TrEMBL record:
<keyword id="KW-0408">Iron</keyword>
<keyword id="KW-0503">Monooxygenase</keyword>
<dbReference type="GO" id="GO:0004497">
    <property type="term" value="F:monooxygenase activity"/>
</dbReference>
<dbReference type="InterPro" id="IPR050121">
    <property type="entry name" value="Cytochrome_P450_monoxygenase"/>
</dbReference>
<dbReference type="InterPro" id="IPR001128">
    <property type="entry name" value="Cyt_P450"/>
</dbReference>
<feature type="transmembrane region" description="Helical">
    <location>
        <begin position="42"/>
        <end position="61"/>
    </location>
</feature>
<keyword id="KW-0479">Metal-binding</keyword>
<feature type="transmembrane region" description="Helical">
    <location>
        <begin position="67"/>
        <end position="86"/>
    </location>
</feature>
<dbReference type="InterPro" id="IPR036396">
    <property type="entry name" value="Cyt_P450_sf"/>
</dbReference>
<dbReference type="GO" id="GO:0005506">
    <property type="term" value="F:iron ion binding"/>
</dbReference>
<keyword id="KW-0560">Oxidoreductase</keyword>
<keyword id="KW-0472">Membrane</keyword>
<keyword id="KW-1133">Transmembrane helix</keyword>
<dbReference type="GO" id="GO:0020037">
    <property type="term" value="F:heme binding"/>
</dbReference>
<feature type="transmembrane region" description="Helical">
    <location>
        <begin position="12"/>
        <end position="30"/>
    </location>
</feature>
<comment type="similarity">
    <text>Belongs to the cytochrome P450 family.</text>
</comment>
<dbReference type="Pfam" id="PF00067">
    <property type="entry name" value="p450"/>
</dbReference>
Length: 549
């Protein structure tokens, strides 16, 4: 006879069946709601197998009961995930891709952390075609007809990976906003900060920093140009965003800011592919430390900038509503988020543009000589090397920049977009993207596709100058969006033109680099290997400042 608190007699198969059923229910909860909160994860992953333990303890030894309960429960969840994602019933089942990528994004996270996403996905496109499934709910597209529907003004909003990259901050930065209307509103001060009048106001800053760069590298017979461009870009962006706070060209990376930035970019790349990990990263020591320190740097600089007031019309001047055009002053936390974004995105991508540009020219001396002649023509020694009236006429400079950006784009793996939840699917070009599907245009592959560019793997600046029948990209609708879909893109090109022009005007360069160069897209925007540059001054040091001003 059973007492009132006596557990019913059950068989092992009954208990296992109940565990499997509860695991399937929990899997459906995860699939439907995709919770990222630890306090939701914990009960869903522990309560059902814990409740099954008293039943199993009637049949098994304690250790066996614990092992059976939790292993059966977790194995059922994993099996449910794998079977659904590989099944013909999955919304993306029609699109090809590697087995492991259909099951999990962890593989993509590994390649991202190593900085090899762009080359890996490029290989997948060569193997599978213009659309590849690179995640359970994500595709990469190489077809140019999909660019405008996906990336244009009426395209899809940004994907969830952008917030995960920042470890789900309480106030997202501009690039993390998925709502079109909110994004347009937040973008207004950025538009004012990067219009032609505002850019002209930054010329004194870049003049001072570019002169400092040239003076430093000209004192040395050999330099690591990638490192110096990193310091130059970070110093300039700190001046432009917060009115100062960085002196790497003077002191080196003594505070380890740049190394922290590189660490931050590694973790951001990884977390973008494994969003749930981003929810834990902010609370777990050792994960995303670079991101946390860069956030602290931005907060410190913004606080000092508010305390000291405005010394110039810098980016903070516009973001903080000091220009009087915002109506109401935004919260400091919002300004910190966007100001820090400007320093990180601006310094990293600009470093990449400059380093890749000089690398291409040093590997192709004939292009270097032609560009040097153009710079000398429009900026003779003793004159202002960055007089803006000349830049529009320097067609070869623009061609070289376009070609360097084609071969080594600032965002080679594209920018994730999503169809979102509750809005249905959408056609992008000939491809139907179901609801809750993430997608991106793989810029690296588009730019190296013979259907878009003749001799796509060759550095050939003349393609931007010669007859239109040889420059397919000029006739390809929307191709420019793969490089110019951000507000700061015009600022990056503006910076690159002036900084590079100043270097060519001041020094002669020659590379000691030979052999294969590994290009890192996600970890850092420079070329990944350190190579030495031989320098020979073209003008007496006493001319630098007076010729610049």
């Amino acid at each position: 006879m059973q007492g009132p608190f006596t557990l019913p007699e059950v068989t092992l198969s009954d208990t296992v069946f109940a565990l499997c059923g509860s695991a399937v229910v929990v899997y459906l909860i995860f699939k439907r709601y995709e919770p990222i909160n630890f306090f939701v994860h914990l009960p869903l992953l522990t309560i059902p197998p814990t409740l099954a333990l008293p039943l199993l303890l009637q049949l098994l030894a304690p250790l066996q009961a614990v092992f059976i309960s939790f292993s059966v429960y977790y194995a059922t969840i994993v099996l449910s995930v794998v079977l659904y994602r590989l099944s013909p019933f999955h919304p993306l089942a029609q699109y090809p891709g590697p087995f492991l990528l259909k099951v999990s994004k962890c593989v993509m996270g590994w390649f991202a952390f190593q900085g090899r996403t762009h080359t890996y996905v490029h290989e997948l496109h060569q193997l599978y075609g213009d659309i590849v499934r690179i995640g359970p709910n994500e595709v990469s597209i190489r077809d140019t007809t999909a660019i405008i529907p996906l990336m244009g003004s009426l395209g899809l909003p940004r994907g969830s990976n952008w917030r995960a990259r920042g470890m789900y901050p309480s106030i997202p930065s501009l690039v993390s906003i998925t709502n079109h209307a909110e994004h347009a509103e937040r973008r207004k001060p950025w538009n004012r900060a990067f219009n032609s009048a505002a850019l002209k106001g930054y010329e004194d800053i870049i003049a001072r920093r570019a002169t400092q760069l040239v003076e430093n590298i000209a004192r040395r017979g050999k330099v690591d140009l990638g490192t110096w461009f990193s310091w130059f870009s970070f110093d300039f962006m700190s001046d432009m965003a917060f009115g100062g706070g960085s002196e790497m060209m003077r002191d080196g990376d003594n505070a380890s800011i740049w190394s922290q930035l590189e660490s931050a970019l590694k973790w951001a790349a990884l977390l973008g592919h494994i969003p749930w990990l981003g929810a834990y990263a902010r609370s777990v020591p050792g994960i995303g430390e670079g991101l946390k320190r860069i956030d602290a740097f931005g907060t410190q600089r913004a606080t000092l900038r508010v305390k000291n007031g405005s010394l110039s019309r810098d980016l903070f001047h516009h973001l903080n509503g000091e220009d009087g055009k915002a109506g109401t002053q935004p919260p400091l936390e919002l300004v910190v988020a966007d100001g820090t974004l400007a320093v990180i995105a601006g310094s990293d991508t600009t470093t990449g543009v400059l380093t890749n540009l000089f690398f291409c020219l040093l590997r192709h001396p004939e292009s270097y000589v032609r560009l040097q002649a153009e710079v000398d023509k429009f900026c003779p020694l003793g004159e202002n090397a960055l007089n803006t009236k000349h830049l529009g006429d320097m067609v070869y400079l623009n061609a070289v920049l376009n070609e360097a950006l084609r071969l080594y784009p600032a965002g080679p793996s594209g920018s994730q977009r999503t169809t979102g939840k509750g809005h249905g699917g959408k056609f992008v070009g000939p491809y139907y993207l179901p609801e809750e599907t993430n997608a991106s245009i793989h810029t690296w592959s588009v730019h190296r596709d013979a259907r878009n560019f003749s001799m796509p793997d060759k550095f050939w600046p003349e393609r931007w100058l010669i007859a239109e029948d040889l420059v397919l990209q000029a006739q390809t609708p929307g191709l420019g969006l793969t490089r110019r879909h951000t507000t700061t893109a015009s600022g990056r090109l503006w910076f690159a033109r002036r900084g590079s022009c100043r270097c060519w005007w001041s020094v002669d360069l020659a590379s000691e680099c030979s052999g294969h160069v590994w290009f890192s897209s996600q970890i850092s925007s420079d070329l990944g290997v350190r190579y030495l540059i031989m320098l020979a001054s073209r003008i007496p040091p006493s001319w630098w400042n007076e010729a610049w001003l």
